[in-house]
Amino acid sequence: MTVKPKKHLGQHFLKDESICLNITNALTNHGDYKEVLEVGPGTGALTKFLVKNKNFKTTVVELDQESVVYLNINFQGLKVLEEDFLNMDFSKFKSEKLGVIGNFPYNISSQILFKVLEEKDRVTEVVGMLQKEVAERIAEPPGTKRYGILSVLLQAFYDIEYLFTVNEDVFDPPPKVKSGVIRLIRNDVKKLSCDEKDFKRVVKMAFNQRRKTLRNSLKQLLGDVDTSAPIFKERPEQLGVEQFIELTKRIFG
How far, in Å, CA of 97 to CA of 126, rounded? Predict the structure, then answer.
């Protein structure tokens, strides 16, 4: 008998197979990728469905040694990478396009998506389960308090859809909060019409003082920039991606 690995690293293992199937079925194969990378498979709740899909090859990345042993024993022929997804070199993959999927550990879910953003030219689709509040925030349109840094940065390059909510009782151990499943599909934007580093800097600085108008929250960047334009009177949650691009151009030229 193979002993299942212990739960840790903020991971809560799914035990409801119908939900696991729904999550894996959410992959649309956008971009016609040939390889899917599952992040943090644990005991393979999603993996067992992914490996049955003949449209792509499944590779898993798992940092926990016990889980790696379990996966290698129970999934013969599965490529298991024992490393940290956040520090992974994506150039090792032969595929020019990749799908990414996972029941993302709550404590690093935002970092996982920032890593996806770094690899946006390769990752054409993401299906992920996160803490419900975080999932909603990422998919949120402008104009609400939930709309924030991750919303803007990810929506610049991905079309994002909140798919469904997952209750606490389908996990082992049960988390204290509900989870949400989202799908990110790469849009047609190859490159922003402003410098991407400047864009990120503006977005992050604006939301770090989100109660202030942009004229005040971005004061450190403005210098002798003319701030008479109406956009500088807005607060960050009122701006969509295109308006943040416009704002970045006004500041940095």
Answer: 12
